Amino acid sequence: MSASIAPTPAAASTRFGRLERRGLLLGLGLAQLVVLAVALTIAVTAVYTAGMSGLLVAGTVWAPLAVAATTSVRGRSVVEWVPLLAEWQARRLVGGTTSITRPGRRLPATELALPGVAGGLMLIPAHDLGAVLIFDRRAGTVTAVVQVHGSGFLLDDAATQDQKVTGWGRVLASLCQQPAIVRVQLLHRTVPGGGLAMRAWWNDHAMAGAPWPSRILADLVAKREVTADRQETLLAVAVRVPRGNARGMTATSIGTIERHLAGLHDALTGADLHPGGWADERAIRWAIRTSYDPDAAARGHSASVHAPVSAPEPMGVAEGWTQVRTDTAVHAVYWIAEWPRSDVHPAFLQPLVLAPGARRTFALIAEPLAPGRALREIRRARAEHAADSAQRARAGQIEDEATHAELAELLRREQDLVAGHGDLRFTGLLTVTAPTPDELEQACAAAESAAAQAICEVRRLVGQQTLAHLAGAVPLARGIS
């Protein structure tokens, strides 16, 4: 008797393209070229007016400019550091790095005021969805939030994993077919208070007239309540406000946005995900509150799901060069500078987002590009590559493999667009949270090690931690420049 064993299908792999680092000429951007042109002008003028001695004397001016135009520090050119440092110093001088909420301050129930959000936000009810929308007048967007649950991706077989990855790909592709959708933020975070549900169940079902062994077990459950964490995934969708609604939303406009959100909800369900209902006012306030005050979840507020959350705004925010302190925690935000450039399993982010005992928030921000705009950007990039290549050939320089890889990625994206696929611009942000600055540095070291295991290159953002935290840890579907 013989038996044959069917080969186990291999899981589909994923590969990402290189981060584009092209410039207008020889890899230099516009600002770098302007500074270099000024340096050359000063040097040539000095030579023609005073000869070699004039060149040497003027070297105190043109030499630093030339160095600033052609060198980079931590992946950013010196010219690009100048405005960042100037803005940071200006904000420090005027007290813009600190924000304190007065205890007696009361905002209308329909308004939110968060640090880093100019003009404030307004909450608008969407009755058909039973939800609340977040209206940002200055950005011209309306944001809705939904909590999403999965069904165990890591324990699935390869075929099921492929099916789920394909379904999620269809959801992303559908975004490109809806011009009204500006941005989608998938936010996965670890929050304290994972034992609250267990404690509530135990109190309701096992503590009535319980004998002493049950009471001892209840004490153990109570201890677990304090130390346990839970995973939470939120999807925030920013929809463009229809024209003529810059100052306020009409019922017709809200109905149009509700139809977009209902279609996206159906797409998530079709992708074998389990989205809950769109967040109501309390859920939105609670999600924002726990982003600034993670200990609030551990204090037990989430156990009473009907309790109001009156003040989601942080009581205080103090921004530093590499971190930002909010009510009960200190945060450091990283940018995913490079995704894996070799074939990896779709679950490659597991060491980064599912580390036990680590308080991290991972945000994937996707901005769909219209096909016409995407094609124009790709063809402009190809033209810049061709001009850059011609300049290198005249200078006798050879092109490196990184340039070839960037060009191959552009060709692949153009082929996908011509074949009818969509194009999205992705940004990954990782927020590391800890109770104190010393613990934060230890947590950051562990996060950087986990990023290396996930074959991702991360860079800690500097001079913009408040805005980065707003984009990477608060479910508002905001971008970052």
UniProtKB/TrEMBL annotation:
Top-rank taxon of the source lineage equals Bacteria
Per UniProt, the keywords (alphabetical) are: Membrane, Transmembrane, Transmembrane helix
Record field: transmembrane: 24-48
Q: Which InterPro entries match?
A: SCO6880-like
Which NCBIfam families does the record cross-reference, listed alphabetically? SCO6880_fam (NF042935)
Stated name of the protein: PrgI family protein
